[in-house]
């Protein structure tokens, strides 16, 4: 297997915007969790089924797991974004290396931000369900989430094949 050339690709303005938007939303949700924590009941949603209904209740400390997972995803994916030459490409050629690296870098950025926004939303909804503001995620949560994540991957895969 031939080693791909390393190339420093600056982060696009769109990727920077997504990062800042996600950081702001994530911070707002963490602040909301901190401010609401003492008012939360001892039992909060621990898991949801495919229809968005709560199918397991747990300790309110479990609400911290989702932001923790978000941070544990964010950090390594942000570092990996800086090294697009480490990604696996289907049609990397001399004439499209930079374009493929930019596409791969943006794909990782979009998936990273979608994932962290998902965990932020789940944390927010967990607080709302625990306090009686809603009953679950709703039946459309899972299909929308899957369309967004899989749709993003398909879009970037098509872009990669066209380059």
From TrEMBL:
Domain DUF1648 intervals: 24-70
Listed InterPro entries: DUF1648 (IPR012867)
Superkingdom to which the source organism belongs: Bacteria
A matching Pfam family: DUF1648
Keywords attached to this entry: Membrane, Transmembrane, Transmembrane helix
TM regions (residue ranges): 20-40, 61-80, 137-158
Protein name in the entry: DUF1648 domain-containing protein
